[in-house]
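Need the bound structure for pyridoxal-5'-phosphate, inputs here:
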Amino acid sequence: MADAPPVTQHPATDAVRHHDPEYRGFASDNYAGAHPEVLAALAVANGGHQIAYGEDDYTAHLQEVVRRHLGPRAEAFPVFNGTGANVVALQAVTERWGAVVCAKSAHINVDECGAPERVGGLKLLTVPTPDGKLTPELLDSEAWGFDDEHRAQPQVVSIAQTTELGTCYTPEEIRALSDRAHEHGMAVHLDGARLANAAATLDLPLSAFTTDAGVDILSFGGTKNGLVFGECVVVLDPERVRAMKHLRKLSMQLASKMRFVSVQFEALLAGDLWLRSARHANAMATRLAEAVRGIEGVTVVRPVQANQVFAVLPREVTERLQKRYRFYVWDEATGEVRWMCCFDTTEADVDAFAAAVAEEMATR
Ligand SMILES: Cc1ncc(COP(=O)(O)O)c(C=O)c1O
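Answer from helper R.:
Posting the output first, comments after.
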């Protein structure tokens, strides 16, 4: 890790800088700061009084911006975080006896502290997958027992785009899954914490693999794409969704000063910031994968389809590298690590990290 940075103070605030703004690791796209254009947008929305709890001018305008991307029926509900977005969205398409079919590796199953179960009161029916992706056949393995009072009723399938394993569904794959879910009378939820990265990979508009592919409700990620914080639940098919505004409040996701979440999304989506940032993060992951592929003893173990690289390398090398750069071991059993690139990862960061991997491998 870098030495402690000098403490600096901006003349306009009593806050002091406690970190090194030049340090960047490969742990998570949540480790990055906010994009300067997003910070500038926050200042634009500041000043004066605006109606609280979403009746402000920024949240109203956000609806138009979101509709440009996701179609005329889309309605955006800004929330604080991704877990909250998922829990609100899933409740809005289920009843008290409802269940959610998802991949075993899904964030809602692995990384949300049981919030869908405890806060949403929902049973998760999980399906093992080789690559984080569900298929109609895999959905069928848990979509049964309809009308059986002994079984929690499968009422929604939840997929992530991109998946937690860095893979990306094609629009056709999502369409096939949506068609099968709808045949079962189930809704389709898409966890789009990295939706922008998927659009960048597919080189398609956001609607191509959401609205037009049969997705009913979306958790639209902003934080990993450069916001200070904030995600949106976007209702795509209002006929399959109910009670959003009540569920958002009940689930503690209603921001009183909502203008500050909405304006950040406007900064992302009104122009091309969302895509520029995602393309850059993806390109950095591709660069990193290419650089480490040439190092003997390092294996990139999954396709690099977005901003993540998954690799296996000797454990002692991982431990030494982690003293220099932050990143996570993804699977303790296999020693698989995850390296994540962000909107602010530079080519120099990637090259220096790849050089560090080579160095540590050479001193085994
Ligand atoms: C696939 C996925 N969904 C949702 C989230 C949102 O999580 P959080 O509640 O930390 O904002 C994340 C964050 O890591 C994620 O990777």
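Comments: Residues 273-362 form a domain with the Aspartate Aminotransferase, domain 1 fold (CATH 3.90.1150.10). The mean pLDDT is 96.
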